[in-house]
Specification:
The chain is α/β, with parallel strands linked by helices and 251 residues long. Helix 1 crosses helix 2 and helix 2 packs across helix 3. The longest helix is centred in the N-terminal third of the chain and has 15 residues. The chain has a domain of 164 residues: 3-Layer(aba) Sandwich (Rossmann fold), CATH 3.40.50. Helix content is 37%, strand content 14%. A 6-stranded parallel beta sheet has the order 3-2-1-4-5-8, covered by helices on one side. A two-stranded antiparallel ribbon has the order 6-7. This is Pyrimidine 5-nucleotidase. InterPro entries: HAD-like_sf (IPR036412), HAD-SF_hydro_IA (IPR006439), HAD_sf (IPR023214), Pyr-5-nucltdase (IPR010237), SSM1_domain (IPR052791). GO terms for molecular function: nucleotidase activity. One of its GO terms (biological process) is pyrimidine nucleobase metabolic process.
Length: 251
């Protein structure tokens, strides 16, 4: 991952894969475990239970990541947060190798597309997940929230997407193919001209966002004009949606 080669003249498509609740199913309940840890972190700062819940949800809704609000308004150390929240997740007990996912990524025609991961987590969490799933060898680069920088940006902020293009040396955003479980993030990418965006939506399953349980797929309108958005419930559908980017023998 993270090749330092010069891609400035690379006109291939670039496939951007969100990691959490996209490369693995929400049924792993990692968002639930994460929500509990973030709530405990708010409590450790001295907030009463109810206020901790309110701020957790408010910051997630406002910034796309509760940690952004904590850093901005409470001057906490994001690396300390990462150690106590993401870093304490027993991922090895919650995830396992996914040969089917590995085959899907392996079948992408690399003469036509590069494959990068794009996450709101810090690099250590992202790398752990990719390693446990057994797909790190298929990911050419990783864009993450740099918690070491207190001014870090995150999805769905435009700055985050601009930074991603810069890191991958992408000249033409219409060459970006993006899949994410957050409709808000997908909409933000489309607004910035990312050409082939897909919403991964495991209808009916429950996830936790901002500390609150949410039935996946219930926000399909979300107040945005994206009725033409491509929605999938299984990553295998990418073989059809992006058929031109897969090896001919793979379809």
């Amino acid at each position: 991952m993270g090749s330092l080669q010069d891609n400035s003249n690379d006109d291939r498509y670039i496939i951007w894969l969100d990691i959490d609740n996209t490369l693995y199913s929400a049924s792993a309940r990692i968002s639930h475990a994460m929500g509990e840890r973030i709530h405990a972190y708010f409590l450790s700062l001295g907030f009463p239970d109810e206020e901790a819940s309110e701020l957790h949800h408010k910051y997630y809704t406002q910034y796309g990541l509760a940690l952004r609000g904590l850093v901005r308004h409470h001057e906490i150390d994001p690396l300390d947060f990462d150690r106590k929240c993401d870093g304490s997740l027993p991922l090895e007990d919650m995830l396992q190798r996914d040969p089917k996912l590995h085959k899907l990524l392996e079948d992408i025609d690399r003469s036509k597309a590069r494959v990068w991961a794009l996450t709101n987590a810090y690099k250590t969490h992202a790398q752990r997940v990719l390693r446990i799933l057994g797909v790190e060898d298929q990911i050419e680069g990783l864009v993450y929230c740099d918690y070491a920088n207190p001014e870090f940006s995150c999805k769905p902020e435009p700055e985050y997407f601009h930074n991603a293009l810069q890191q991958a040396q992408v000249q033409d955003p219409s060459k970006c193919c993006f899949v994410d479980d957050s409709r808000m993030n997908v909409h933000a990418a489309r607004q910035l001209g990312w050409g082939r965006c897909v919403h991964f939506c495991e209808q009916g399953l429950t996830t936790v966002e901002g500390g609150k349980p949410k039935e996946i797929g219930k926000d399909t309108s979300s107040g945005t004009n994206d009725s033409d958005l491509v929605v999938i419930s299984d990553l295998e559908e990418l073989r059809t949606i992006w058929a031109d980017l897969f090896k001919p023998s793979a379809n």
